[in-house]
Amino acid sequence: MTANPEKQYYVPGYASYLRNLHSIDRVGGVRSSYRILSGLTGYERMRTSWSAREDSVRWMVQSNNCRNHPLFEKLIDFIILGDEKYALGTKWAEGLEFLFSGREEFLVNVLGLQSFGTAADTLRRWETMPVVKYLRTLRT
Fold first, then answer.
1. Which residues face 17 on adjacent strands?
2. Which residue in 61, 13, 67 sits closest to 39, CA to CA?
């Protein structure tokens, strides 16, 4: 893969690569919270049939990119405040299942996520995502 030199840098102990900060004291790249928040408020592509429910799923997927951020949970709490209607699935008894049900096509085709068979299989796979694990703790 050819990397654009203008989009990466290295200094002893730190490197920026693929828009993530890598350091010797933190495993995994740290995504900028600014980039995530600006991505949540601006749409790369917009469908005419977009719903608030689909927006919650999009927010969840994008916020998972900050999973290595030292303030990850506080960032998710802040994002929940901005999702007035669904609060990333924490407002309903059905929770995340409600957000994902019947959305396999949306998850794969619109968000570009990998399909893992049935919608139920995809949701089970999503249970391993740090953002989903944290949201589950808020439901108890």
1. 20
2. 61
CA 43 from centre of chain? 14
CA angle (121 as vertex; 130, 18 as ends), nearest 5: 40
Lowest mean pLDDT among 10-14, 75-79, 126-130: 10-14
Backbone φ and ψ of 44, nearest 5°: -75, -40
Place of tokens 């601006």: 42
Task: Output the 3-class SS for 50-68.
Answer: CCHHHHHHHHHHHHHHHCC
pLDDT digits (tens, 9 = 90+) for 114-140: 555 665 666 667 777 888 888 888 865
What is the pTM (predicted TM-score) of this model? Answer: 0.67
Quick check: 30 and 16 in contact, CB under 8 A? no
- Determine the Cα–Cα distance for residues 81 and 43; give it in Å rounded to an integer: 19
Domain boundaries, the chain: 1-31, 32-139
Of 51, 74, 126, 62, nearest in space to 96 by CA:
126
